[in-house]
Amino acid sequence: MKKPDIVILGAGYGGVMTAVKLQKILNSNEATITLVNKFDYHYQTTWLHENAAGTLHHDRTRIPIKDVVNMDKVQFVLDTVVSIKPEKKKVKLKNGEVPYDILVIGLGFEAETFGIAGLEEHAFTIDNINNARLIREHLEYNFAMYHHEDEKNPGRLNIVIGGGGFTGVEFLGELANRIPELCEEYDIHKSMVRIINIEGQSTVLPGFDPQLAEYAMNSLESRGVEFMTGAMVKECQADRVIYEKDGKEVEIPTYTTIWTAGVRANSIVEESGFEHNRGKIEVRSDMRAPDQDDVFAVGDCALIMNEQTGKPYPPTAQIAIQEAETVANNVKTLVQGNGELESFEPNLLGTVASLGRGDAIGDIFNNWKLFGWKAVIMKKIIDNRYLLKLGGVGLLMRKGKFNIFY
Ligand code: FAD
């Protein structure tokens, strides 16, 4: 009998952890496992804001797939998924096609711009290594250009971040550290540079504990960040951003708008005709698509309702990693054709947001609030724990974060 083809799309947290677990629990003679990704490395999305600000080199964030996946057990295909054809059980790639018997969709997220004029064309997004690297270079270029032009142009030194959610706040923290370094390097006085956050709600980190959100704002303000809360971005152009607050439109000259205010699942899910809820596959408790017994979704492509709150669980790396465990176990059960599929039970350990060098906030283990260095240590434990789980002590030693002062 032909071995079933298991195809995993995307090597983010959900996809790569599914592959790593499957290579351990399935024998090579039981199934063929194929992992498709558009880069030959896995990157830690949760570190991209540091790469974008230039406080951490992107080579610390990316991990060659061959370093964590056993290429004797998993076939790796370096290609871009174009669409999925569930009725034909095929995945169309830029350079070919892959058939599957069991599919795992882990294609992650993309920026949601809500149709705001000019954002797609002119704003930057922090969603992969290439874009993070582009932001870092763009910041430096504008600092360099400031002294190069005869007429001083404040737009070169105004940096606007749209959105004060988790990603926006973490990025602001890194910028607050990076900008003084850039000022020194390019002979620019710190007072010339503005870091402006535009957030629609009345506070940053909406949904987070208010005391922690206030701490975050105070910490960032003390390092020069300006907050425009209750303000909506209306339009972005190459050299300005326009926002509305209290019924008035305000224009900020800037060449650097970074949009962090919205994410959605990879649009391939919706375009491939899967039944979806706001672009995500609302999976059954065993992580399978509602009408497809051979298709699993993991990470930001999957939507799971929290029965207690009636709201979906937020898209996080933490949940993606936990889901991968269930997906791998259930794929194995399908391949072996015996036993019941297990239900996914999230184990929410809490959230820790970095605020840049030496500062962070956290809400962990059911309402234990952390501030400052304690939260910094917790953040590093979380990051290092993932590396250990993914690639063992060797990977932890190569990529881990051990300096608590940075
Ligand atoms: P991803 O990790 O995004 O991986 C998707 C993979 O699919 C990528 O490898 C990509 O290359 C690949 N891919 C995409 N499209 C294609 C295609 N067409 N063809 C082939 N391959 C493709 N969560 C937390 O829990 N804690 C945090 O502290 C935290 N911080 C964050 C900070 C930032 C700056 C950001 C942006 C997010 C943060 N998140 C955090 C959220 C978290 O990163 C996501 O929820 C998580 O990455 C989702 O994992 P995933 O496996 O679904 O997708």
Compose a concise summary of this entry:
The protein has 406 residues and is of the alpha/beta class. The protein has helices at 13-25, 48-53, 58-61, 65-68, 119-122, 129-148, 166-185, 210-221, 267-271, 317-336, 372-399; strands at residues 5-9, 32-37, 41-43, 62-64, 74-78, 81-85, 90-93, 96-99, 102-105, 109-111, 158-162, 194-199, 225-229, 231-237, 240-245, 248-253, 256-259, 263-265, 281-282, 295-297, 302-303, 305-306, 311-312, 350-354, 360-364, 368-371. The protein has a five-stranded parallel sheet, with helices on one face. Strands 13-12-11-17 form a four-stranded parallel sheet. Strands 6-7-8 form a three-stranded antiparallel sheet.
What is the quaternary state of this protein?
single chain
Instruction: Report the strand count.
Output: 26
The gyration radius over C-alpha positions equals 22 Å
Euclidean distance between termini CA atoms: 55 Å
* Structural domain tally: 2
CATH architecture of the largest domain: 3-Layer(bba) Sandwich
What hetero molecules are in the model? flavin-adenine dinucleotide
Approximately how much helix is present in the residues?
25-40%
What structural class is derived from the secondary structure elements? alpha/beta
Largest beta-sheet characterization: 5 strands, parallel
Domain FAD/NAD(P)-binding: 5-324
InterPro entries: FAD/NAD-bd_sf, FAD/NAD-binding_dom, NADH-Q_oxidoreductase
Cofactor: FAD
Keywords: FAD, Flavoprotein, Oxidoreductase
